[in-house]
Amino acid sequence: MTGWRVGVVIAPIDISAKITLLSESIVSCVPGFVQDAARAAILCPNTTTEKMYSRYRARQLEICSQLKRAGLEIDRIPQGAMYVFPNISNYAIDSEDFAMHLLRTSGVATVPGVYFGSKGESHLRFSCAGSDEDIADLGSFFRQAVKSYKKA
């Protein structure tokens, strides 16, 4: 259910009550079809979850490998996310500007790191939820974008 923004919290009752007070004003009325999908995801066999995790992890490692070969720094490979968050400071100062350049020149969509706060600046977030074909040429696309980009 990547990107559907639904979750469950298992916590002591006093903490759960505080979470409810906070989240009630921010998130409410999850659509019925999303609830149905969440129920199906929770009830699916562990083998399905393990298979999906395995595919995401393989893509994540492939993205890291390609970006490292393209000269990017990967500070750490995430252990619980479907994303890679490489440092692009050797190539660009402004993550939003470079993300848009990458999109315009190669069709590769990323999320600028600055969208995650000031410490995210000079990073890009790459999703591992696409297909293997989506990431097949990521390293070469990145290298081409770097060549045509003027670092401010």
Description:
This protein is mainly alpha-helical and 152 residues long. It has a domain of 101 residues: Aspartate Aminotransferase, domain 1 (Alpha-Beta Complex), CATH 3.90.1150. Helices cover 49% and strands 5% of the residues. It contains six helices and three strands. The chain has a three-stranded antiparallel beta sheet with strand order 1-3-2. The longest helix is centred in the middle third of the chain and has 24 residues. It starts with 12 loop residues before the first helix and ends in a 5-residue tail after the last helix. The model has no long low-confidence stretch (mean pLDDT 88).
Question: What key phrases describe this protein's structure?
Answer:
single chain; mainly alpha; Aspartate Aminotransferase, domain 1; 3-stranded antiparallel beta sheet; 152 residues; 6 helices; globular; 3 strands
Widest beta sheet: strand line-up: 1-3-2
Q: How many DSSP helices?
A: 6
CATH domain topology of the domain at 47-147: Aspartate Aminotransferase, domain 1
Per CATH, the architecture of the domain at 47-147 is: Alpha-Beta Complex
Report the end-to-end length measured between terminal Cα atoms. Answer: 38 Å
Beta-strand percent range: 5-15%
Global structural class: mainly alpha
Return Rg in Å: 18 Å
Order of helices and strands: HHHEHEEHH
> Which consecutive residue ranges, at least 5 long each, have pLDDT under 50?
none
The share of residues in helices is 40-55%
Spatial shape: globular
> What name goes with the CATH superfamily of the domain at 47-147?
Aspartate Aminotransferase, domain 1
Largest sheet properties? 3 strands, antiparallel
Q: What's the CATH first level of the domain at 47-147?
A: Alpha Beta
Q: Compute the number of strand runs.
A: 3
Mean pLDDT: 88
